[in-house]
Amino acid sequence: MDGSLILSAFKQIQVPLMIVGADGAIVHCNDMAHNVLGYDVDALIGQPVFGILPVTSVAELNAYIEPPAADAIIKRMVAQKKNGGSIPLSAHMTSWSDETGGLYHALILRDITDEMETARQTRAKLARADNAIKGARIGVFDFNPVTETVIVSDIWRELMGLSPSDDVDVQEEWRSRVHPDDLAMALEPIRLCSENLGERASSEHRVRSKDGTCWRWTRTDAAVANRDCEGRVISVIGATTDITERKTTENELRISVAQFKSAFDNATVGMATVGMDGAFRSVNLALCDLLGYTETDLLENNFELLAHPDDHVENMAMIDELKAGNVNSYRMERRCIRADNEIIWVLLSIGVVKDSDGNPEHIISQVVDVTEQRRLNQLKSEFISTVSHELRTPLTSVLGSLSLLSTLDDEPFSDDAQRLLFIAQENGKRLHALINDVLDFEKFSARQMRFTVAKHRIIGLVEEAVIANLATAQKFEVRYDIVCPDRSVTGFVDPDRFQQVMTNLLTNAVKFADKDSSIRLAVKAQKNEIRVSVTNHGSGIPDTFKDQIFKPFSQAATAGTRAMGGTGLGLNITKQIVEQTGGTIGFDSSEDGKTTFWFTVPITEPK
């Protein structure tokens, strides 16, 4: 196009316009441009631009344009006014050459004094806001949609890993650091507010750290701050916060919830969550199968409707305890009514879940079918009763008769008959002891054994146990040694059960001790209890058996051990006696064959 036509076209523009010729002289400056710079009309025509704009040559002016572009936006330059003052301007500059190759520049000028004052005030506000929110680590920014410029606070820079002295375009820096998949979402709050599509908007997105080693989550909240007289948005203010920790917590919580749901849904036992009003909130397949209902049927039902009517009062009492916060969980066996009206027994485990204020929010329940277990327990009880009445009673009579026969002197039996009589008595005693162990084990396991606990002098009871077991020691060719620094110590025990404990420990110590060795019994007072120990030197306890030693029917699988006989219930019964009378029990066994079994007796009366 002809250069003169371009010049003519620019002159028609109705905004402040200045045209600079190839020699740097102002060849055109319209009235609005003269007014902005404080000059009379046509006063600048022919004047060198270098006295007005902060450039020293046409080449320097042209340097603002980066090829191949033919124009550029100069966001800020300070021009000189006629009165010697200065004025901040922004300029949209376009260049072209005429027919002779002369280079012309047209600059559309805009006074940005008000904008700069607004920016100054904004920075001041941001500074004050920075002081107020520094502790909260909230970065603040102010975006001008008209000029597409942004002012950010120091905290915002810190969140981005930038120091106040870093000379970077914060918009470009931010864009380059936002995760590519999140960029559109990150820009959305600014777009919505800038385009007047909403007063407020927010987004959560990932931002790469300054060193590029990790991604951090940030949240941006934006809101319209100012509009011009025509209603256009001219300021969008926003806040940026680092929410990485919250996101991490949310992710961990999401994983935890998923794991719980998987465990809940796939559990082989019945599980349900129940509101404090008793209504089902969720149930798993195992519970549906157990009760014979569909999931929909249960969710429309109340937990109590499935319970046996006779258990209603006790059930409601426990629920009231949960609601009151007196208990957090409980376990009990209850009857349930299946969909086919069959009554089954279940082991119900209940735990309460509280809200953030500590109030009961809902209940998690686990339901295990124990109908068959109860049937087997009933059969076991009947069997134990049969053993007690049908075996122990006649066996006692048989042993009495054998004892009577062995004392008769009128007609002495032959040696063979006496030997058979002795064997019968010994085997009868063993059978009687076995029956007693089985019956005791059952009572202790069911916690039906009654104890008569009172204060006793412990050394006296220990000496009684030694005298009662002297024959056993002589049989295995060992001896007892008693060590008691303070013979006056007393503790709370059931004397009969104490003797049962001592007999079990002494019998075991004697059986597994080396011949001609000593069994050491020690009684020692401690802070709140008395410790009684029995120590022998012998074969020791195999490492593989130590975890099972107090379990019922457990015996070390060695020929020597099995040769000693026994039910494998003695140590279990001993443990239950000690613990149910307020003490503790344990053992120590070393590689050199030294084994010590010990138990404690409370000094104060157990509750």
TrEMBL record:
The PAS domain sits at 2-47, 256-326
Task: Kindly list the GO CC terms recorded for this protein.
Answer: plasma membrane
GO MF entries:
histidine phosphotransfer kinase activity; phosphorelay sensor kinase activity
Keyword Lipid metabolism appears in the UniProt entry: no
Q: Which domain of life is it from?
A: Bacteria
Q: Where is the PAC domain?
A: 201-255, 330-382
Cross-referenced PROSITE patterns? HIS_KIN, PAC, PAS
Q: Does the keyword Transferase apply?
A: yes
* Swiss-Prot/TrEMBL keywords: Kinase, Phosphoprotein, Transferase
- State the reactions this protein catalyses: ATP + protein L-histidine = ADP + protein N-phospho-L-histidine
Mind telling me which Gene3D superfamilies this protein's record contains? 1.10.287.130, 2.10.70.100, Histidine kinase-like ATPase, C-terminal domain (3.30.565.10), PAS domain (3.30.450.20)
> Where is each Histidine kinase domain found?
386-605
Question: What does the record give as EC number?
Answer: 2.7.13.3
Protein's name according to its UniProt entry:
histidine kinase
Query: Which organism does this sequence originate in?
Result: Yoonia ponticola
- Lineage summary: Bacteria, Pseudomonadati, Pseudomonadota, Alphaproteobacteria, Rhodobacterales
